Backbone:
């Protein structure tokens, strides 16, 4: 199988899966089997490209010419490879979890749910492998639209309102900032392709570069940079598997992935390093890190706390890219992977708690660790990873980002990262402490419950183990990230 | 060879078919004839388009009277595109119309409907094909008079009022146009467009010629519903039979845009209109007003047909905005949006017709939860709506790309901002439909409805598919539009 065919198949397999899932709507067991098989197949396809990319190849394929000189084109480079691996790998685990969650909570419209999920993954793969801005933008918008039915899954008035915020912010920012930025790039440089070293160097003035960067980072609303972060907490109205895979991994990572990709391949890290017109970005992302942490600290609702923690952590990636040093860019790429594993574990745990104990607030969780030891242990691992404590994977990415900040002499960024570490500890550790060391209140005592259904527990134990494993076996992501900045 | 008579056959076939339908007096037979005529017309228009693709111009002398004395039909890359568009829409709508007309009109009017439809088609094709300014007026009247009656056939009694409103404004428009042509005839002594262009070169700043330009501009802008001359359009579209709305929305205003382009670029010449006069600025301001005000009004409509009618006024604003840039990119954007919007709106009004078939009307209050029982119609409207918004992968995105590019090329970044901001208004009105159709529980009346018949769904979905095909692979449409723009910018030789 040629690499070009593999890329096209990776896009087609989830779409074919979606059609088959829809066809099997009368037989839930067949439907769920198709989901799992599709997810497994997609991961194998994506993984089969990894050795090529590691060997320095950049397989590409042009699908069709959309407008004169503008093609739908896919090209697998290290960052996209990493993102593709994470998203497709976690889809398998998440499908397992979804099956447990959707059945245990007796959710409606399960077929639509799985169809949209497959569509979301197809869009994510499209984003990961996009060879130019046009292709990226197309799949970026597709991802917004195909996840809309997932966010509004409940069909209630609250879901409808959340859907408005979701769509309004994501479509609004992308149409008003992102699209003009792409067209502007095309106008000044005559290309929208991702190229090492960027395409804008020497084509646009310093002022224009600064404005373009602003249009890109704020236009990519999925990166949830303040003040365009409101869609993320709003999206928490969705079923937990959606929050876990899409709003902790696929959708939000598609956002920060796009930011890093554009900084590296459109602007060029070395080309814009030191420019006065682009040095505001660390401040904006630093502000988001701190402000979102404070909101997370004050939220009693567990999913809301996780959502704001995500907002904060996404800005780690943006900040790391904005520091424009090779080490920090490596950190940015790694953080996409490590945060994904940690955060999906946390969401899985939140969903398991909801399913087994019907609890949504942090203050209700006293003593729950005794009844749900697996879930809460996994939660603890995820929390440690986000704080950045070894031996959890989060430590590695944070190490690189901080090294980059030190290398570039950005001491304010260092201070922000240290402060954020403290905040993370402050809003996660009390939950772990309460769960294991406090006595449950009387109301909780009255309702006996154990762990959530086994597929959910299996999924969250898997991701928690992976979080630890990635700390010890970080070779693959590290190699990909080093290739990104040309440091082999 | 019959092929050399294609330019006239294109127009004359539906013209002759119309009286034949009166003689047939049977709805089904009239429909069959209409199908044959429209599909033959589509074949002819494609053949014409292929003939002029290399940049050549077909000049056909009616009755062998050589131009400029006789009437000349003159096909170049600009109007070949229009002929193809009008024929294509007619061919699709005529298939769709059978079930729709059968439901909306009493049986004894069916053959009259197809008669008028053929007349209207002949008029629109004639306007596009002719190279004679007076002959254009004749076809303008043929298409207008037939469309007044077609609109009045709507079963809602307000259709009569809408038709009357359109009659008054349309007649003013046609009169202004003929006054303009009269003035030009006074100054040049010719009605042949090419000849006129030749004689006008260098004397375009003479006052009667300028007055003629003013009359023609206002007259045609009434017909193409440029804001604020659009007042006839929402009612006409809302109360006309569904098939009529789909056909007129996709063709009538587009053909009028073509007439404006023909006069501005081919007869007066680009420099006379855009350099010597501030036409670009005037068009720009009116287009921006259309884009924002009409979209804003659309958001608050209770009736979906009116909503999409106001959306049409806004979308026409995008077309004229492209023209107002007076650049190759801008003109390409305008022409490609003319084509793209015809596909999108044609599809949308056909799908709304499916609702009308089942419900009799399409108010937001009547369609709560209708996506459960009419999933294909509803999802089609969502997809068409995405094209109106300009989501990548749809034709609307291609238009938007070129419009924004044209704005950036002209150095006016604030217009680029206005374009993307106004497209967000489309998100609001499209999502009103989504929330009504998908988020409400269907009541008992809705729950017993059936999906529309295939003979209506298939044509409508073909158009939706075209919206996506030409959105993903726009090389064909962009090349066609760019060549048409280049032809226009060259002026008439």
Residues:
């Amino acid at each position: 199988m040629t690499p070009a065919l593999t890329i096209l198949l990776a896009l087609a397999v989830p779409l074919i899966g979606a059609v088959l899932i829809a066809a099997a709507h009368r037989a839930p067991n067949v439907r769920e089997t198709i989901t799992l098989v599709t997810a497994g197949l997609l991961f194998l396809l994506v993984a089969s490209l990894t050795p090529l990319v590691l060997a320095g190849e950049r397989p590409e394929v042009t699908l069709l010419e959309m407008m004169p000189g503008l093609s739908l084109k896919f090209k697998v480079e290290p960052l996209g490879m990493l993102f593709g691996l994470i998203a497709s790998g976690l889809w398998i685990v998440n499908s397992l979890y979804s099956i447990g969650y959707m059945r245990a909570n007796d959710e409606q419209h399960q077929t639509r749910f799985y169809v949209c999920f497959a569509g979301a993954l197809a869009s994510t793969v499209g984003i990961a492998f996009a060879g130019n801005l046009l292709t990226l933008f197309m799949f970026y918008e597709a991802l917004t639209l195909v996840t809309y039915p997932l966010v509004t899954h409940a069909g209630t008035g609250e879901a409808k309102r959340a859907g408005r915020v979701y769509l309004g912010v994501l479509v609004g920012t992308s149409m008003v900032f992102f699209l003009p930025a792409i067209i502007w790039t095309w106008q000044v440089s005559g290309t929208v392709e991702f190229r090492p070293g960027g395409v804008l160097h020497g084509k646009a003035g310093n002022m224009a570069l600064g404005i373009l960067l602003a249009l890109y980072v704020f236009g990519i609303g999925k990166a949830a940079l303040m003040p365009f972060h409101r869609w993320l907490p709003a999206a928490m109205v969705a079923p937990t598997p959606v929050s876990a895979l899409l709003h902790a991994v696929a959708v939000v990572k598609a956002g920060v992935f796009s930011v890093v990709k554009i900084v590296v391949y459109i602007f060029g890290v070395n080309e814009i390093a030191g420019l006065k017109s682009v040095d505001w970005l660390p401040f904006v992302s630093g502000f988001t890190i701190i402000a979102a942490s404070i909101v997370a600290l004050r939220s009693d609702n567990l999913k809301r706390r996780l959502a704001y923690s995500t907002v904060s952590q996404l800005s780690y990636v943006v900040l790391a890219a904005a520091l424009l040093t090779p080490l920090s860019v490596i950190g940015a790429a790694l953080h996409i992977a490590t945060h994904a594993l940690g955060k999906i574990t946390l969401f899985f745990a939140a969903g398991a708690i909801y399913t087994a104990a019907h609890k949504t607030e942090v203050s209700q969780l006293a003593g729950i660790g005794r009844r749900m030891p697996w879930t809460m242990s996994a939660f603890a691992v995820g929390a440690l990873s986000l704080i950045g404590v070894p031996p959890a994977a989060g430590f590695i990415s944070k190490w690189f980002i901080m090294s980059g900040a030190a290398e570039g002499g950005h001491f304010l960024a260092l201070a922000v990262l240290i402060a954020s570490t403290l905040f993370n500890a402050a809003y996660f550790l009390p939950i772990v402490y309460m769960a294991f060391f406090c006595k449950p209140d009387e109301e909780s005592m009255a309702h006996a419950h154990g762990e959530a259904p086994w597929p959910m527990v299996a999924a969250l134990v898997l991701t928690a183990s992976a979080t630890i494993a990635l700390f010890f076996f970080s070779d693959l992501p590290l190699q990909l990230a080093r290739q990104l900045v040309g440091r082999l | 060879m019959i092929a050399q008579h294609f330019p006239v056959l294109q127009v004359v076939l539906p013209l002759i078919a119309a009286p034949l339908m009166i003689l047939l007096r049977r709805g089904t037979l009239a429909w069959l004839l209409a199908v044959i005529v429209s599909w033959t017309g589509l074949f002819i228009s494609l053949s014409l388009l292929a003939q002029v693709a290399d940049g050549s111009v077909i000049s056909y002398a009616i009755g062998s009277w050589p131009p400029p004395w006789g009437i000349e039909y003159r096909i170049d890359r600009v109007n070949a595109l229009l002929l193809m568009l009008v024929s294509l829409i007619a061919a699709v709508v005529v298939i769709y119309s059978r079930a729709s007309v059968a439901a909306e009109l009493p049986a004894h009017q069916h053959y009259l409907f197809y008669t008028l439809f053929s007349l209207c088609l002949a008029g629109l094709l004639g306007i596009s094909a002719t190279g004679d300014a007076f002959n254009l007026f004749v076809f303008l009247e043929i298409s207008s008079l037939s469309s007044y009656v077609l609109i009045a056939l709507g079963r809602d009694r307000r259709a009569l009022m809408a038709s009357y409103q359109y009659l008054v404004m349309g007649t003013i428009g046609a009169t202004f146009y003929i006054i303009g042509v009269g003035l030009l005839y006074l100054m040049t002594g010719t009605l042949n467009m090419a000849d006129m262009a030749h004689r006008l070169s260098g004397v375009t700043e003479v006052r009667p010629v300028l007055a003629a330009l003013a009359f023609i501009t206002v007259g045609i802008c009434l017909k193409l519903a440029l804001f604020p001359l659009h007042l006839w359009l929402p009612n006409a579209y809302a109360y006309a039979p569904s098939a009529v709305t789909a056909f007129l929305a996709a063709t009538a205003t587009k053909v009028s845009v073509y007439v404006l382009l023909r006069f501005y670029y081919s007869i007066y010449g680009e420099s006379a209109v855009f350099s010597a006069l501030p036409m670009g600025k005037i068009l720009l301001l009116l287009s921006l007003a259309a884009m924002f005000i009409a979209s804003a009004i659309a958001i608050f409509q209770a009736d979906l047909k009116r909503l999409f009618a106001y959306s049409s006024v806004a979308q026409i604003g995008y077309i004229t905005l492209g023209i107002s840039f007076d650049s190759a990119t801008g003109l390409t954007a305008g022409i490609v949006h003319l084509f793209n919007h015809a596909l999108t709106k044609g599809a949308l009004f056909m799908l709304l017709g499916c609702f009308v078939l089942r419900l009799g009307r399409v108010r937001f209050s009547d369609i709560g939860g209708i996506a459960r029982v009419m999933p294909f119609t509803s999802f089609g409207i969502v997809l068409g709506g995405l094209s109106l918004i300009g989501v990548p992968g749809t034709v609307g995105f291609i238009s938007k790309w070129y419009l924004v590019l044209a704005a950036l090329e002209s150095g006016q970044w604030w217009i680029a901002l206005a374009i993307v901001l106004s497209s967000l208004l489309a998100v609001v009105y499209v999502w009103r439909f989504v929330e009504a159709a998908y988020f409400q529980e269907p009541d008992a009346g809705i729950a017993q409805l059936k999906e529309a018949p295939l003979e209506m769904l298939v044509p409508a979905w073909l158009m939706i598919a075209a919206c996506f095909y030409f959105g993903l692979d726009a090389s064909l449409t962009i090349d066609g539009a760019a060549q048409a723009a280049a032809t226009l910018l060259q002026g008439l030789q």
